[in-house]
Amino acid sequence: MNKLWYFALLFVTIESFAATKASKLVWPSPPDPARIEYVASVNNAKELGIEKGFFSKIFDFMFGEEDPVLNSPFGIHADKSRVYVTDIFAKTLYIFDKDESDIISVKGSDKEPFLYPVDVVTDTQGNIYVSDSVRAKIYVFDSDGDFIRTIAPKALQRPVGIAVSADGRWLYIVDAMASQIHVTSLKGSYLNSIGAHGKGEGEFNRPTFIDVGNDGNLYVSDSMNHRVQILDKNGNYINAFGELSDRIGGFGSPRGIALDSDGNIYVNDTLYNTVQIFNSQGELLMLFGSYGTHKGEFALPIDISISVDNTIYITDTNNKRFQIFRRLEAPE
Fold it and tell me: Which has the closest alpha carbon to 26: 322, 288, 276?
């Protein structure tokens, strides 16, 4: 009887352990080694683990303020303990600060509210840059969300994706209407423009988002050319990959783009609701995601940001949330 009880207990323990392991949502599926793991879906501050204190709740109650709920999250940027998310429906930038257990809402300058805030990025000083494609301006705020200035070079028509150069000196602004990338100083002085409308090397057709690698190179979603282009920091063409295709490795509508610590390139495809991962040469490594409302599924994944610890943040726009994933280390 004791032996039977022992083996029954052992069986339950093994089964429970297997169930715990199986409950993790990973890509690729077993038996292949897992490389991407689902972490969480976030629609509000509480789901990110931000819980306001008693006095903050009293303050909010007295002044009629409520914790924000995402409606149409669009651009996203992860920086240290903060996650910055633009919401095009609320016309607001939300700053989720996990260390301070606080949420900051930024709606533009005192004189000019946002009309269509698209992307967000920060510099080494913690200043925040937000592109507004309707205003045709970049709004700059300090780390507390207080307005500093706007950046609006004459050449700028419809700013979308933005990025700060690896050395922290320049701001790259993707102009979807002009099919160019404008370069300014962080104070707003116009320096030059990269590219032109077309299909050739270094030319663009309605580009959307951009990221800067540790090598200083620019990685651009050349959306209507259905490819990714890689340029050096001065805008000189290096390489391109992708084409219009419904097969893996091709693109329907590439949008958000980001690099992990190994220089692998992650590209959101809003048409196929997937994220494809390529190495630095543009060779496909894997993909994850599909259309749906469940964990790890997407309905219009627009932007992506990867933190220094390889945590992946993706705006899942039509599901009114952003999702968090973790890149797992490759097995030896």
Answer: 288
CB crowding 251-272: b at 16 or more within 10 Å, else e: bebbbbbbbbeeebbbbbbbeb
Q: Which residues of 98-124 are buried (b: 16+ CB within 10 A; e: fewer)?
A: eeeeebbebebbeeeebebbbbbbbbe
Q: Considering the entire predicted model, what is its pTM?
A: 0.89
Closest CA to 188 of 154, 151, 141, 133: 151
pLDDT tens-digit map of 103-124: 999 999 999 999 999 999 999 9
Contacts of residue 197, Cβ cutoff 8 Å, sequence gap at least 6: 178, 179, 203, 204, 205
Query: What's the CA gap between 189 and 102, in Å, rounded?
Result: 33
Provide the 3-class DSSP secondary structure of residue 122. Answer: strand
**149 or 54: which leads in pLDDT:** 149
For residue 143, give every residue at least 6 positions away whose Cβ sits within 8 Å of its Cβ, in sequence order, or none: 125, 126, 127, 128
Q: What are phi and psi of 141, to 5 degrees?
A: -130, 155
Classify residue 302 by burial, with Cβ atoms within 10 Å: 0-12, 13-18, 19+: buried
pLDDT band (50, 70, 90) for residue 23: confident
DSSP state of 157: S
> Which residues are paired to 140 by β-bridges?
129, 149
Q: Is the pLDDT confidence value at 10 over 50?
A: no
Contact 270, 253 (CB under 8 A): yes
SS3 state of residue 56: helix
Segment 87-96, tens digit of pLDDT:
999 999 999 9
Chain-centroid distance of CA 326 in Å reads 13
Q: Which residues pair with 288 in a beta bridge?
A: 275
Whether residue 31 is preceded by a cis peptide bond, meaning omega within 30 degrees of 0, is: yes
Measured distance CA(64)–CA(4) in Å, rounded = 62
Q: What is the rounded distance in angstroms from the CA atom of residue 119 to the CA atom of residue 122? A: 11
The three-state secondary structure class of 237 is strand
